[in-house]
Amino acid sequence: MSKNIILLIEDNPDDVLLTQRALRRNQIEADVVVKTDGAEALDWLFASGAYSERNPAQLPSLILLDLKLPKIGGLDVLRRIREEPNTRLVRVVVLTTSREDEDVVESYHLGASSYIRKPVDLEEFSRVIGHLGTYWLAINEALPSRAGGG
């Protein structure tokens, strides 16, 4: 079985470091691929543009998606992920500071697997990331690889 890949789509360098540190601290076994804007994330995911040599069949086990992104916003990224048959079933957790009810509703409407508000407290943030990684990568039963979605 191949190692889990987490696609972290986050433009805040501090949140990237905190997430990576929390995953390591909680012993979440995964290769973390970081993309800092929506356009780059979609290019990586769909093996286009600068990532045209990447194997598009190698999908992430989990996508952690911020909503407030440059170039292409998180909701539009989620919409594109769900529109494509190859990525439709990939687990996408919205991980954002947004407290807007509309963002929660629209995220679920577009097919988010989960919506989590980033805790401000560093210890709580680490706990949340640990629980998130454990649940989605160890406890939750993934689709068989032939069905798509990690």
Describe the 3D structure.
Strands 2-1-3-4-5 form a five-stranded parallel sheet. The longest helix is centred in the C-terminal third of the chain and has 18 residues, at 122-139. Helix content is 39%, strand content 15%. The chain is an alpha/beta fold and 150 residues long.
How would you summarize this macromolecular structure in one to three sentences?
Helix content is 39%, strand content 15%. With 150 residues, it is α/β, with parallel strands linked by helices.
The overall pLDDT average reads 92
Which regions contain 5 or more consecutive residues with pLDDT less than 50? none
Topology-level CATH name: Rossmann fold
Give the N-to-C terminal Cα separation: 11 Å
Structural class: alpha/beta
Biggest sheet details = 5 strands, parallel
Which descriptor suits the 3D outline?
Answer: globular
Structural Rg:
14 Å
CATH architecture annotation name: 3-Layer(aba) Sandwich
Order of helices and strands: EHEHEHEHEH
**Count of individual helical segments:** 5
Return the CATH class. Alpha Beta
Any idea how many domains?
A: 1
Number of strands: 5
Can you list the strand order of the major beta sheet? 2-1-3-4-5
What's the CATH H-level homologous superfamily?
Response regulator
Q: What is the beta-strand fraction? A: 15-25%
What oligomeric assembly is this protein in? single chain
